[in-house]
Design goal:
- The protein has 323 residues and is mainly α.
- It contains 16 helices and no strands.
- It has helices spanning 2-23, 25-29, 31-74, 80-86, 93-115, 118-164, 169-179, 184-196, 201-206, 208-211, 215-230, 234-258, 260-283, 285-288, 290-293, 295-319.
Length: 323
Amino acid sequence: MISTQVAVGALVALAAGGVAYVFVYPLISGDARAEKRQQALIGAKADRRGAMTSVNRREQVAQSLKDLETKQRSKDKLTLEGRIAQAGLTWTKTKFFLFSALLGIAFGLTLLVLNGNPLVAAAGLFAGGVGLPRWILSFLKNRRINRFLEELPNAMDVIVRGIRSGLPLNDCIRIVAAEAREPVRSEFRQIVEGQALGISIPESVAKLYERVPVPESNFFAIVLGIQAKSGGNLSEALGNLSKVLRERKKMKGKVKAMSMEAKSSAGIIASLPFIVGLLTYISSPAYIEILWQHPTGQFVMVISACWMAMGVFVMKRMINFEI
């Protein structure tokens, strides 16, 4: 009996000692505090590593943007070959100069036959040989850029769907180069040809801005450049870019619709003096001929033309918006 009580007491004492060892000893020895400090240090290191990773990513993105901005500034000074390429022509400088000379001669001879004044013919020769060819290049360039912007979001969607279905980026670009509409097809074909020569995709796409100097092509180059350096979900990035391009297109359409009233008013105001002068000349020629026959009238016409040109320029700057 006594031995049984002793055994039970020993077991109770052993259980109490175990409980005390489990719950009380860590508080007395400081192991729990040490473990908490270790966990806090591990968490701090993990947070520091995550912060360093995010900082490195931001630095890579900033460096990519700086590199692209530096390249863009260096490309601001375009050569004649660059302007011809932006217009979508395959001419050489010699062919362009020959075309300018023939156009200037034809324009000057036409004015000489119609007017008979050598000074007017010389002015026509200069305008036809220098101003008109460059205006044609600018017109072709703007038309080509508008067509490019119309088709580029569709090309982005093709690339996004191809990447999500498992195709590599190279094959997606080849699909666009084969099936897209001009001028996107020819531009992406040049990217494919650059890859065949050993140029990487980000470098080939970065050269796209030289031929199509619009922010949309620069956005495409920035996305591919950042993805090549820091990684990431390319399909998601290009999908967001496609949405941005479409929203920019919608915004341009809204701005164009909202500014049509101002453009119509500017056109009416600018054409009103010519219409009134023509109607006056038809009804009373002797009344208005003094404007270009008398020196005072010629002086008034020159001053009026200068003021009118200034007003048209100011109105044009007021109704043109950069998106």
